[in-house]
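Q: I'm building a small set of examples for a reading group on sequence design. Run inverse folding on the following structure and report the sequence directly after it, with nothing in between.
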């Protein structure tokens, strides 16, 4: 990760390899190869957001998913806090995949650096990379099976 100083503010520039390493830890991409993840890293755009910035709004359409590179964001539904996400976590991926409105609000609780993934770029990747699409489907299948197992164990 390269660093540069701009007016006493340290900015970290994530290299492609660091982005791929971080993407590899995200459950959505668990079945994807490093080559697949490199393609995701290429379509991602780094952005810096100030504390208090809203990344997603519940029930609104969303054209971006966010991978947290640095900092923390809070996930809420109505007045209920659902959790906190930090480096290596992803928000907005459901809308990226199914095109439906956001299921929760996500707001930065600290200054954050995120990797933004646009839905049109993601859809293009799905269309042009059958292997990535297959691996993503495997990951989604694993997530569904895990949730089903937890649900059965809770009964």
């Amino acid at each position: 990760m390269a660093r540069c100083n701009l007016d006493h503010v340290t900015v970290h520039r994530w290299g492609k390899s660091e982005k791929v390493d971080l993407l590899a830890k995200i459950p959505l991409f668990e079945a994807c190869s490093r080559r697949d993840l490199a393609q995701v890293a290429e379509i991602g755009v780094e952005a810096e957001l100030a504390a208090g910035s809203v990344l997603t709004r519940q029930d609104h359409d969303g054209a971006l998913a966010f991978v947290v590179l640095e900092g923390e964001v809070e996930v809420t539904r109505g007045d209920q806090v659902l959790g906190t996400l930090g480096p290596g976590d992803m928000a907005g991926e459901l809308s990226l995949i199914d095109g439906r409105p956001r299921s929760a609000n996500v707001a930065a609780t600290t200054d954050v650096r995120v990797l933004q993934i646009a839905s049109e770029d993601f859809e293009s990747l799905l269309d042009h990379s059958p292997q990535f699409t297959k691996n993503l489907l495997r990951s989604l299948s694993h997530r569904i099976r895990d949730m089903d197992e937890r649900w059965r164990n809770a009964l």
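The beta strands are 2-6, 9-13, 45-49, 54-56, 64-70, 73-77, 80-85, 90-91, 105-108, 112-118.
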